[in-house]
Sequence to fold (133 residues):
Amino acid sequence: MSDINKVVLIGRLTSNPESRVTQSGVTIASFTLASGRTFLKGGTKEEQTGFFDVVAWNKLGETVMQYCKKGDRIAIEGRLTQQRWEKDDKKHSKVEITMEAFQFLTNKKENPSGTTVNLPSEQNPFVDDNIPF
Fold:
């Protein structure tokens, strides 16, 4: 039996993505995605925003570097990945999202250049037929 590790988020990039290249030539793009929610608490409307570290590898990372910028609204699908390390005899841990697919949600008014990237629909979980709401 296999466990499930799946994350779906919609949010905005908090800064331009940063990239690095491994010794073997693999591109890794990283960025932070801000995702908010609105809810009622005691009859008062409240907002809460979470900030999530995201990494994209290979071609996906290259695409992110080419087309995504600060403020863009995107939907991502991925999995949680935990990094663990030890420094100065202290154990550290960080959870990040490894992106497996994404869809641009910034409209042309927000993005005057109108840049879009069409991902194959079989690889894109955000085509209209798959949205549960």
Notes: Residues 7-39+46-109 form a domain with the OB fold (Dihydrolipoamide Acetyltransferase, E2P) fold (CATH 2.40.50.140). The chain has one domain: 7-39+46-109.
